[in-house]
Structure formats: structure tokens, C-alpha cells
Design brief:
This protein has two helices and ten strands, in the order E-E-E-E-H-E-E-E-E-E-E-H. By secondary structure, the chain is an alpha+beta fold. Strands 1, 2, 3, 4, 5, 6 and 7 form a seven-stranded mixed sheet that branches. The longest helix is centred in the last third of the chain and has 15 residues.
Length: about 170
């Protein structure tokens, strides 16, 4: 079956726990247009999923690699629309970081409370996908699909003690 197509970084910090998300630019023709996602992208030849996730967090949101403390990872979450296999790296923020969009494909980098993922999805209108099941967030952001499934799994892992965050309250 092979390795993952993509790797994402679920970067966590604080109490209540927050997670870093980026919004893919709303560009016509992009398969990820207007999608809220974890920083991530393709795993390059010879690159480990952890390396890819950390590289992509730097490229998309200016998160310095030194600020990332990996906790655990799992493979693979699969996207329903593109069938991509995603390796998920769960990490704690361990140093200063000022996330901001750093690439043409990303137009926002934001921290959201992780507990939002526990809300019940409802029909929402996505600018490019029409009506989908998801969560409507402030600022017209929509959390849905693989990103929502990943965040729900991480929330469960934290609640069950499979992942221990133990990070200082403030790093921003």
C-alpha cells in the first residue's frame, strides 16, 4: 500500500488546548480552496513524515522547527474527496511562535480551541463545495472532512490519556 501521500502537523498548546490551523487560499481550481486544514503537504522522496510535517508548518505558517516538540504520530487518515493518505504528527508548541500565512497557497493561520471539534456537524455552505457537513466557525471558516476527523481523534487521545500535552500556558 505504500507510505502516506501527505503529512500534517497537529500543533497543540495551552489550556484549554488550542490547535494551529491554516486556511488554504480561496483560489478557483484548487482542490483545497477555502479549506481549513492542519499545516501540511506532500512527503518528498527520502523525507520522513515528521520532517515533512515540520517543513510544511514552517512553509505555511512560519512555525520554527525548534518550536515543535513531537509527541506521537499515526498513519493514516484518508481524505474522502482526493483519496490521499495523511500521516498525522501530533506535537506540542515548545517555544515562541507567531503563526502567519507564509505561502501563496495559505491566506490565514489561526489557533482554535481543540474542543470545538466535539461539536455536532451540520449542513453548511462551503464557497466552492456547496452544502457540506461541517462546523461553521467565526470569520466564515468551515471545519470539515479529514481535518475535523483528525481533530476529533486527537481530542479523544488527549481525553483518554494516550497523549499528554504538559506544555506551559503561554508561548505566543
Amino acid at each position: 500500500m505504500g507510505g502516506p501521500d501527505s503529512s500534517v502537523l497537529a500543533l497543540l498548546w495551552g489550556s484549554p488546548t488550542r490547535v494551529l490551523l491554516v486556511r488554504k487560499r480561496c483560489a478557483p481550481g484548487s482542490p483545497w480552496a477555502c479549506d481549513l486544514a492542519l499545516p501540511g503537504g506532500g512527503v518528498k522522496r527520502g523525507e520522513a513524515p515528521l520532517e515533512a510535517a515540520v517543513r510544511e508548518a514552517w512553509e505555511e505558517a512560519w512555525i520554527p522547527p525548534a518550536a515543535v516538540r513531537p509527541l506521537t504520530s499515526y498513519c493514516c487518515e484518508k481524505t474522502m474527496t482526493a483519496g490521499r493518505r495523511i500521516h498525522v504528527v501530533i506535537a506540542a508548541l515548545q517555544g515562541p511562535a507567531e503563526p502567519r500565512p507564509a505561502e501563496e497557497e495559505v491566506d490565514a493561520a489561526i489557533w482554535i480551541p481543540l474542543h470545538i471539534a466535539s461539536a455536532k456537524p451540520a449542513p453548511v455552505r462551503h464557497p466552492y463545495r456547496g452544502v457540506i457537513e461541517g462546523l461553521s466557525l467565526p470569520g466564515g471558516l468551515i471545519l470539515w472532512g479529514a481535518t475535523l476527523r483528525i481533530l476529533r481523534r486527537i481530542l479523544a487521545m488527549l481525553q483518554e490519556g494516550e497523549v499528554k500535552l504538559n506544555t506551559p500556558q503561554r508561548h505566543i
